[in-house]
């Protein structure tokens, strides 16, 4: 129905209701009171006019009544009451008498039929056109504001396959009550019982402010029922406007293994980024591209996307241009950080204020087999970028490092440790503030185990895990990127910033979660142990014993003490790179990284 036809129909219906209400009131009271026809006719016309006046004032003809709530009902109450009061005033002025009883009955009938006319179609539609018999009986965890919104949305949506039948909430004050006509049947511990009692076929977790720990506990209870479980977005996604509260999605492994998000110091970050030129190396990678997304929100003057792979740089450039058409100037530079002259040229041309150095080789087994490439990219490349930043007068240089740089047993970790030493050394001889940011494994990044697990599950298994006791620290890509950006605003020069990573996670538990979230059981998908790969450790560390500093410089962010810097030894490795055998190169790198330089330096010099 068009808007005009809809308004015309409502005006006609309201007119009939108003006239019928006052004459019905007269008919009801006619036995007891005699009224003059003139008074009744005048009152009906007056009431009709004032009803339309106040209905227009409160926009009763512009509301979508299929979404009616308390606010809409309150608008009807005000409109009807004021029209009755206005009619009473006219009666007093014209007839010097107020027909109190008839106006009271008219008010009751008027209010009842106006509300009934607005809600009748919604009730009729919900009853006969929603097809609830074909929908899955759904349990909603959380009877708060978000849970009510989800229940309302699912109930009125024709496209949804879910029909809410029950709430679960830990607030005992809500137990034995009904919310949206649905019973609140118990606490989280009662989920298994309620699933059986109410024949539940689907579960939705509707608490956007859940901590990761609590989400784990709830999901554990839900998964024990073998019922498909979904959730609404987390509070930070809702606040940023990425999604709405009724956007139900599958629970992801990132939700279970990620941690509560870090609150950023927006003011200090804005001071260092807003209106400035920012350069990101490795801008096409998983961490680099997310840094670009986060940085763009702070309105820099120019964002330079530097990377070696043209396809990945093109992808992030197009994404940012489409999402921020009126945003900063986006400049792409296809360049290899191993090319020092090119780095000096790019930095000299753009004169960035802040540099985020995310370009690196990070696959442990590949770097074990190709240590010289790890040196070229992670060590020489970092040295080139750092020296170019110094020459260009960059204010802050932030290097993305890894927990594998602590007591490394592999080439990749050793080269990242050497890169940290270079960055810390540059901080002692340059006006630029050089810092490194160290964190653990990043969920969903290139090289992460999760994409591998998902691929193996899609192929029917088995899921391969190197060792049953293998543990790692995990964080999400956005969290890692925010840490890098926050570190830049905290930098004074020479620091190694470390995130409080929480409790480490067993890789086998991660595999089990991915299998479960993919809709399978461990009986369906086998977990196979393949043995520790060359260079791997059973656990990782975030700080070496001589770097430990207990004080937090920011919530959940620690700073490591400066360790010994073996710049001459690193330069020896770089100078002799072409002539060093692979084994000697690996031993030399590990000697430098583990502060056992005396023996290893003799190897390099021999």
From TrEMBL:
Keyword Secreted annotated: no
Residues covered by the Polysaccharide biosynthesis protein CapD-like domain: 278-560
Keyword Zinc-finger attached: no
Keyword annotations: Membrane, Transmembrane, Transmembrane helix
InterPro entries in the cross-refs: NAD(P)-bd_dom_sf, Polysac_CapD-like, Polysaccharide_Synthase-Rel
Family in the record: Belongs to the polysaccharide synthase family.
Protein name: FlaA1/EpsC-like NDP-sugar epimerase
């Amino acid at each position: 129905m068009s808007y005009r036809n809809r308004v015309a129909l409502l005006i006609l219906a309201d007119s009939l209701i108003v006239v019928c209400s006052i004459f019905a009131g007269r008919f009801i009271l006619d036995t007891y009171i005699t009224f003059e026809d003139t008074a009744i006719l005048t009152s009906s016309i007056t009431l009709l006019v004032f009803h339309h006046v106040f209905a227009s004032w409160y926009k009763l003809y512009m509301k979508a009544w299929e979404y009616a709530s308390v606010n809409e009902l309150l608008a009807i109450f005000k409109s009807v009451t004021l029209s009755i009061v206005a009619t009473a005033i006219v009666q007093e002025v014209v007839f010097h008498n107020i027909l109190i009883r008839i106006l009271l009955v008219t008010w009751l009938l008027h209010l009842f039929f106006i509300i009934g006319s607005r809600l009748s179609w919604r009730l009729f539609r919900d009853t006969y056109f929603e097809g609830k018999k074909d929908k899955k009986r759904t349990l909603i965890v959380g009877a708060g504001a978000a849970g009510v919104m989800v229940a309302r949305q699912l109930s009125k949506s024709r496209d949804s396959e879910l029909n809410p039948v029950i709430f679960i909430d830990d607030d005992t004050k809500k137990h034995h009550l009904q919310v949206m006509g649905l019973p609140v049947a118990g606490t989280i511990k009662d989920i298994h019982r309620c699933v059986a009692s109410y024949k539940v076929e689907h579960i939705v977790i509707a608490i956007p402010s859940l901590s990761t720990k609590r989400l784990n506990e709830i999901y554990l209870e839900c998964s024990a029922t073998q019922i498909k479980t979904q959730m609404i977005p987390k509070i930070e996604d809702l606040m940023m406007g990425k999604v709405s509260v009724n956007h139900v999605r599958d629970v992801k492994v990132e939700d279970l293994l990620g941690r509560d998000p870090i609150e950023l110091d927006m003011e200090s970050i804005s001071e260092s980024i807003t209106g400035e030129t920012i350069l990101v190396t490795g801008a096409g990678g998983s961490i680099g591209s997310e840094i670009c997304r986060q940085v763009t929100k702070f309105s820099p003057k120019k964002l330079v996307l530097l990377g070696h792979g043209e396809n990945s740089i093109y992808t992030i450039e197009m994404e940012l241009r489409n999402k921020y058409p009126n945003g900063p100037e986006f400049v792409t530079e296809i360049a290899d950080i191993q090319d020092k002259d090119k780095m000096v040229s790019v930095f000299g041309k753009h004169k960035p204020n802040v540099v985020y150095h995310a370009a690196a080789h990070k696959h442990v087994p590949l770097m074990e087999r190709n240590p010289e490439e790890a040196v070229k990219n992670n060590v020489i490349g970092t040295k080139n970028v750092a020296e170019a930043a110094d020459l260009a007068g960059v204010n802050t240089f932030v290097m993305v490092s890894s927990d594998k740089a602590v007591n490394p047993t592999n080439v990749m970790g050793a080269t990242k440790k050497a890169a940290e030493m270079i960055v810390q050394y540059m901080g002692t001889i340059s006006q630029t503030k050089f810092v490194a940011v160290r964190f653990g494994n990043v969920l969903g990044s290139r090289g992460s185990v999760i994409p591998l697990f998902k691929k193996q599950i899609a192929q029917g298994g088995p899921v391969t895990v190197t060792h049953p006791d293998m543990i790692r620290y995990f964080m999400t890509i956005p969290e890692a990127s925010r840490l890098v950006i926050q570190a830049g605003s905290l930098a004074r020069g020479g620091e190694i910033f470390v995130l409080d990573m929480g409790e480490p996670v067993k890789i086998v538990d991660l595999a089990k979660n991915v299998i479960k979230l993919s809709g399978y059981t461990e009986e369906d998908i086998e977990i196979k142990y393949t043995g520790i790969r060359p260079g791997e450790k059973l656990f990782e560390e975030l700080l070496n014993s001589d770097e430990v500093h207990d004080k937090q410089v920011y919530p959940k962010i620690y700073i490591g003490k400066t360790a010994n810097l073996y710049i001459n030894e690193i330069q020896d490795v770089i100078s002799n790179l072409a002539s060093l055998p692979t084994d000697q190169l690996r031993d030399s790198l590990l000697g430098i990284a583990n502060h056992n330089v005396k023996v290893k330096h003799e190897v390099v010099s021999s």
